[in-house]
Design goal:
There is one protein chain. By secondary structure, the protein is α/β, with parallel strands linked by helices. The protein is about 35% helix and about 20% strand. The chain contains 7 helices and 8 strands, in the order βαβαβαββαβαβαβα. The protein has helices at about 15-20, 40-50, 65-70, 100-105, 130-140, 155-160, 170-175; strands spanning about 1-5, 30, 60, 75, 90-95, 110-115, 145-150, 165-170. An 8-stranded parallel barrel has the order 1-2-3-4-5-6-7-8. The longest helix is centred in the N-terminal third of the chain and has 13 residues, at about 40-50.
Length: about 180
């Protein structure tokens, strides 16, 4: 799994064009634009679909109703969002930062989890990196796919796969 996560700078023409450029090389694009209103995200999805981006390649962050409305690939949730993923007909993933959160995500029926930050990242300057051993431990502890996030580069993606991750997600690799 390779996920590109939008940078939180809006769904501008440049971002939409970048999303179109990277669709051949990623499995999914996660629309994570917390600063935008629901209506702005809704309009951004319409623009992406009109631009030829496939709905089944888009994962919306938090706004599950948009996953339903546009038959998106899925919805990605914050660690504190407690839902029963099995009740939804699309892919459900969740961010995790501890083994306890990972276990909770499994009990919630998530299809995959993000575990982060693996490496130091500019997205979370004051959060210590977990490292490859912690990633290995999480991968061995849960029976759902673990996607590594945080400080991903073209050279360290191989390391997270060797540590047991089923893939990686990144903002900076795709949007900086």
């Amino acid at each position: 799994m390779i996920h590109a996560i939008t940078s939180g700078k809006g769904l501008t023409v440049q971002v939409i064009n970048r999303i179109k450029e990277i669709t051949p090389i990623v499995d999914a694009i996660v629309i994570r634009e917390k600063q935008l209103s629901f209506a702005e995200i809704d309009n951004g999805i319409i623009t992406l679909l009109q631009a030829g981006v496939k709905a089944k390649q888009l994962i919306i962050h938090t706004h599950m109703e948009l996953a339903y409305k546009y038959s998106l690939l899925g919805c990605h949730l914050a660690a504190n969002q407690a839902i029963n993923a099995a009740q939804h007909p699309f892919l459900c993933g969740q961010s995790t930062h501890t083994k306890e959160e990972a276990y909770l995500s499994v009990t919630r029926g998530m299809d995959y989890i993000y575990f982060s930050p693996i490496f130091p990242t500019t997205s979370k300057l004051n959060v210590p990196a977990k490292g490859l051993q912690a990633l290995t431990d999480i991968c061995q502890a849960v029976e759902i796919p673990v996607v590594a996030l945080g400080g991903m580069t073209h050279t360290n993606t191989r390391k997270v796969i060797r540590a047991g991750a089923q893939g990686y997600a990144s903002i900076s690799m795709f949007f900086d």
